[in-house]
């Protein structure tokens, strides 16, 4: 994510990362991420969990127990609306998981889009 932000030259870029220890994730070679594109980490049924931020490891455990689809959204802005609409069409329920403000967070943005507001 930092590598992608470092190479972004079309305007300001902000990368949010937590303090403290990491999760012990395996490091992969540096590569630019597709801006505004989430990644499906696990396919499931009925429920889709849309994760924004550092709770992905916990979300993986929950998704396994609930047989839920898990999506690492990676970007709050630009939001991957195409992927969200795809998940909404294929699942009975969507849950957004983020450690952010309730007002103005990714969940509220998704809800406004679902209601037809911008």
TrEMBL record:
One GO BP annotation of this record: isopentenyl diphosphate biosynthetic process, methylerythritol 4-phosphate pathway
GO molecular function: 1-deoxy-D-xylulose-5-phosphate synthase activity
EC number(s) on file: 2.2.1.7
GO cellular component, one term: cytosol
Cofactors named for this entry: Mg(2+)
Protein origin, superkingdom: Bacteria
Keywords, comma-separated and alphabetical: Thiamine pyrophosphate, Transferase
Listed Pfam families: Transketolase_C
Subunit structure: Homodimer.
Protein name, as recorded: 1-deoxy-D-xylulose-5-phosphate synthase
């Amino acid at each position: 994510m930092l590598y992608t932000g470092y190479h972004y030259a079309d305007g300001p870029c902000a990368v949010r990362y937590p303090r403290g220890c990491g999760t012990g994730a395996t490091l992969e070679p540096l590569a630019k991420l597709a801006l505004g594109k989430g990644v499906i980490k696990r396919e499931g049924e009925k429920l889709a969990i849309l994760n924004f931020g550092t709770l992905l490891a916990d979300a993986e455990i929950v998704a396994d127990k609930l047989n839920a689809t898990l999506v690492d959204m990676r970007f709050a802005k630009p939001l991957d609306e195409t992927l969200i609409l795809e998940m909404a069409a294929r699942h009975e329920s969507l849950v957004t998981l983020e450690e952010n403000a309730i007002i103005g967070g990714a969940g509220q943005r998704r809800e406004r889009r679902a209601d037809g507001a911008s």
